[in-house]
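FIELD: query
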Amino acid sequence: MKSVFAVLLSLVALFIFGCSSREQKALESFKPVVVYLSGTNFNSGYSDFSYNVQKTDSLVSPFIGIITFKEDSSFENYKAYYAFTCHFAEQDGKWVHKSIDIEHRVINDPDPDLKNAINDEVRYEIRTQNINSEKHLMALYRLELDNKLSIFLNCPKIDNE
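FIELD: result
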């Protein structure tokens, strides 16, 4: 009976304390980055934040952190958002950002510019211009977010090609 009690007590302690103190410190040190990003926005604000910190086998970066969030880019009948994924690594006891991925996801596109287009060639040209415009906008978002994070984290900017 005592051994069952000891096992249960050990499981409760494991459940309460969860991870090791080093892992807990990494998680706690990552939270200010999440708080910073939740207060940094370009237009209407970020939403749907989630984050995760994972232990790695690397001696240089023993922990990685990932933050995902969205920014609404809807207007009128057009429904879309930007999906951001920011990757971080803990190095020498501080967090540095490693990459920023941005996707533009369209939920509903009634294509008001295309339905009045004269022919397929014009429709194709309008669609190509829209796609190129989104690529440029995402590059600007990435650059601005990179600048803000490098200042906040006091680390070098990401080497964007």
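FIELD: remark
The chain has a mean pLDDT of 79.
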